[in-house]
Amino acid sequence: MTHRSLLHAIPAIALGLCATIAQAQLFKSAADTPSVVTTERTRAELLAHAPDGLGPDKQVWLGLRLTHQRGWKSYWLNPGDAGLPTRLEWSLPRGVTAGEIRWPVPSKFLLGPLVNYGYAGSVLLPAPVSFSPEFSLDDYARSDLEVKLKAQWLVCSDVCIPEEGEFSLRIAARSSHASNAGAFEASRAAQPREHTGSSRIDIDSTSLVVRVTGLAASLVGQKLDFFPETAGVIDASAPWSQQWDGNVWTARVPLSPQRLESPQTLPILLTSPQGGWRTEARVSGLWPAVTPNVGSTAAPALGEAEVAPQPAGPRLTFGLALLGAFLGGLILNLMPCVFPVLAIKVFGFARHGQDATGRRFDGVAYAAGVILSFVALGGLLVALRAAGEQVGWGFQLQSPPTVAALAVLFTIIGLNLAGVVTFGRLLPASWLAYQARHRSVNAFLSGVLAVAVASPCTAPFMGAALGFAVAMPTPQALATFAALGLGMAMPYLVASWTPAAARLLPRPGAWMDTFQRLLAFPMFATVVWLLWVLGKQTGVDALIATLALLVATSLLAWAASLRGTARASVGLLAVAALASTATLAFREIQASVVAPQGDAQVAGWEAWNAGKVDSILATGRPVFVDFTAAWCVTCQYNKKMTLSDPAVLASFQARNVALLRADWTRRDASITAALASFGRTGVPLYVLYLPGKPPQVLSELLTTAELTSALSGLSQ
């Protein structure tokens, strides 16, 4: 099969990969999903409590119990100065609904000047279950009610690591389930009680003045602790005062200069050794204006409203954003991760070097594929962020199943280019005839494939432009992404429509077969890179399972090229091998809850976490932050060529610069929020912080000269 036939077959190949992923998910039964997930830092367990069985008139609770290793903690609804609250996403049968978490009273944790709210040891986060009229016990006469949960939590010690797990539990519908009664009773006792007295909050220029009356007589005269449920309103680490005026408790709590909310009602908790009390205090007075702070790296809590990010530096205009996206698209052609697909395109141009009409149609079709794909990907990104998702540029490669599927796809393309398998024998004759008549379809698909590979890369001018685009109205945002696609496609449009460029193309000949096989090796090199990314995201077990999947894929591809009875017998064996390895691979990938295995602690680097920059700056020490990802080739290039340069490392050491690395290989909401605070949606991003000065953002394509110049401004 020719190169054009391969590109025309890509939709079918991709569809088959998607079906394989879906099948693997369907085979993942409740028995395959555990009720306990254990990491090096926490043990998470899904629990249920139904002492009288199930039904609308029954008391039923579900909950996630987190048991932390010594020195680790997770976070409350409001994490304080830094952190993220635990998030529970339930999948329940029809007619069954889980309510919000009933948060136990938190503790305060000090980390330098920061104050965080959360839990150490063991904590159960319960949620009440309700039943609508749609629920019927008759539906469970011979089966149990199945509960599924996807949970995300952040655990911190000296570093912060996001963790997640998928849980499944079966509950007997017609009998009691009270084995966890003690755990749920203890959690209920740890929850704050509703305060029946009155409360109010007055605002002055810099503080909240809180007044609560009607507290128990035994509390009068005692010191109480204060926790607001709404994140980002108070300066949690600032000193605050309290006093008793008879039976009225009064406190003056400093406001956060960069607060995220200005609520009219503020739910608060007051705690003492006797327990906790919750009240919703009405706010009186006008909230003061918010002071922008572009250097803050603290992430808003999940589920809280976000403030529009403030870029670190002069804001772009729409015209500059279009220009930056166009120039970034041009330079994107030079990024290493795009080379394999560009080689295929050059191969197609060389094949039709003397066909002026064909070249022009191919150039337009290729450009259409690139531009429309960038617009579609940009539209998806804008839609997800508008829905509250913490995603950024390159988000698709933060999904391990997507990385594994791309590895399979590139293996198939490499095998075809190497001549190991010919897909022409697999495609219907009518499809091949259609492909022969519509050559431009293949050019369009090659543009789509180029975007799929190029999307995680960043180039100069792209970061600021795309960050600006996401914050713009949708038409302008999509126009910016279209400009990015036009920039990437422009060299091929010029080459296809300019006779002088056509004369530079080599003439077709027998050398094309050798050239075609040579192009297989960039594809296989891309597979190696994708497997490296997958290993960073998951672990050895998932990586080995994916390698087995690639072997089975190669076996099936080879079997498809055989003839006669051998094709049928070997094909059945290959299909069975592919089905089993695909199920194993995607099960291992889904089960892997591994922090990015980056080199954050190599050669003096430390792992970044929200709030760590401020705590180091408070000591008077400068900070350099490398926002990176394993799938970002530009990041790896800068790491090897600039950040590992002995002169640069010596400059860092001589000036006592703290080196932090924010690894975005897997999805991390706190890193996404930090990028957004600089008006960026992707990596790389390099930021130099100096005590008492605005942060300095360096170029995406980092050079030794630029970094050395920036460091030379620091005092010795």
Could you give a short description of this structure?
The protein is α+β, with helices and mostly antiparallel strands. Helices cover 41% and strands 21% of the residues.
What topology does this entry show?
Blueprint: H1 3-27, E1 36-38, E2 42-49, E3 60-68, E4 74-80, E5 87-91, E6 96-98, E7 107-111, E8 114-119, E9 122-131, E10 145-156, E11 160-171, H2 181-190, E12 193-194, E13 199-203, E14 207-212, E15 225-228, E16 241-245, E17 248-254, E18 265-272, E19 275-284, H3 318-332, H4 339-351, H5 356-386, H6 400-417, H7 429-437, H8 439-454, H9 462-471, H10 474-497, H11 499-503, H12 511-518, H13 520-537, H14 540-560, H15 565-591, E20 605-607, H16 612-617, E21 623-628, H17 633-641, H18 646-654, E22 658-663, H19 669-677, E23 685-689, E24 696-697, H20 704-712
Parallel strand pairs: 12-19, 13-19, 20-22, 21-22
Antiparallel strand pairs: 1-2, 2-3, 3-9, 4-8, 5-10, 6-9, 7-8, 10-11, 13-14, 14-17, 15-18, 16-17, 18-19, 21-23, 23-24
Helix pairs in contact: 1-6, 1-8, 1-15, 3-9, 3-10, 4-8, 5-8, 5-10, 6-13, 6-14, 9-10, 14-15, 18-20
Model description:
With 716 residues, this protein is an alpha+beta fold. Helix content is 41%, strand content 21%. It contains 20 helices and 24 strands. Strands 12, 13, 14, 15, 16, 17, 18 and 19 form an eight-stranded mixed β-sheet that branches. Strand 16 (241-245) and strand 17 form a beta hairpin. The radius of gyration is 29 Å and the shape is globular. The model is unreliable at 1-32, 291-315, 425-436 and 593-598 (pLDDT under 50).
